[in-house]
Amino acid sequence: YDKWSVGSPPMKSIFIYGLNDNVNQEFLAGLFQPLGSIDQLKVYYHPKSRKHLGIAFVSFSKSSVTKEVLAKFHGTSIMGNIVNIKPDPLCQITKKSSG
Fold first, then answer.
1. C-alpha distances in angstroms, 55 versus 4, 6, 8, 13, 21?
2. Cα(74)–Cα(82) distance, rounded to whole angstroms?
3. How far apart, in whole angstroms, are the C-alpha atoms of residue 8 and residue 22?
4. Nearest CA to 73 among 31, 38, 33?
5. pLDDT by residue (tens digit) across 3-31?
6. How far apart are alpha carbons 49 and 17 in whole angstroms?
């Protein structure tokens, strides 16, 4: 997919809501890596208090992995919390960033 492509970009990224405070990047990577390659993974924390916000962003290399994660994990319990997984509403093609 590039700037000359027609139609929507492939769904490769998701947001996960309702995560347990103990879920970190390493835990999510271990959970999703067996399904396919992860391009980007970020767990969000409050900028000042560093409190876990219960939200994560994951971008996969293939849209088929994204669909599998949605089907397998949406509405299920991850570390004791029922999570809500939604596709990235803007279908952004994300830039890799450190952090």
1. 32, 31, 25, 13, 10
2. 8
3. 35
4. 31
5. 777 776 678 899 999 999 999 999 999 99
6. 19
Closest CA to 66 of 25, 1, 14, 17: 14
Helix ranges (H only) for the chain are 25-32, 63-73
pTM here is 0.81
Cα separation, 27 vs 49, whole angstroms = 22
- Ranges assigned E (strand) in 1-99: 13-17, 38-45, 52-60, 77-78, 81-82, 84-87
> Residues near 86 by Cβ (< 8 Å), separated by ≥ 6?
14, 15, 17
